[in-house]
Specification:
It is built from 5 helices and 4 strands. By secondary structure, the chain is of the alpha+beta class. It has 2 domains: 1-50; 85-191, no CATH class. A 4-stranded antiparallel sheet has the order 1-2-3-4. Strand 2 and strand 3 (116-128) form a beta hairpin. The model has no long low-confidence stretch (mean pLDDT 80).
Length: 192
């Protein structure tokens, strides 16, 4: 054999060895991931998934049932948006950390409430005990276009410290509604 042919074979052998090494690493990674869960947990998850899937297929026998349920959900969402004035324009979620009983996800939300826009960024820490899951909001950051209103800035700061999204959205809805009324009133006097 000449040197050119030998070199081609050696290159091919080296390429195959590298591919085998990469596949072995992938296999080890998948083995480590599967060892996070015991066989009992995997079987319980599988049974739970099958039960949910069978329950879903029994509960929604036809596409028309799914369409009716989707229309109902859209109607409910539309009512909530009209009632609260809150409209979400963007949401993203990224898993930051995941272990056997702990998950940390980073959420980003943006939207508007009447004429005020807002952006939220927070981490949601979910801890799973034997039977229930508890969730805690951490690292809450709120950006609002509140102008020079010092009271809104204080409210946003205290909400960020407490991580209380429910109070934030309730207060935002009420504040934005009255903000819109004030804006329209001042606009009325400017016109005259």
């Amino acid at each position: 054999m000449d040197n050119g042919t030998c070199q081609v074979y050696e290159d091919e052998i080296q390429s195959l060895e590298e591919e085998i090494k990469l596949l072995a690493e992938k296999y080890e990674d998948s083995q480590q991931e599967s060892t996070f869960f015991s066989e009992e947990e995997i079987l319980m998850s599988k049974k739970s998934f099958q039960g949910e899937f069978q329950g879903e297929s029994k509960g929604h026998e036809s596409p028309s049932d799914l369409k009716a349920q989707l229309e109902s959900l859209e109607t409910d969402l539309s009512f909530l948006m009209k009632f609260t004035g809150i409209r979400f324009t963007h949401h993203s979620k990224k898993t930051v950390e995941k272990t056997k009983n702990r998950t940390v996800r980073k959420h980003r939300l943006s939207g508007n409430c009447h004429s005020l826009s807002f952006q939220l960024e927070f981490q949601l820490l979910e801890i799973q005990n034997k039977e229930d899951v508890s969730a805690v909001i951490t690292d809450l950051s709120i950006i609002m276009e509140s102008g020079e209103d010092l009271d809104v800035s204080k409210f946003v700061s205290s909400t960020e410290e407490r991580g209380d999204l429910l109070t934030f959205f309730r207060s935002l809805s009420s504040y934005a509604e009255w903000y819109e009324h004030r804006r329209c009133t001042f606009q009325h006097f400017k016109v005259r």
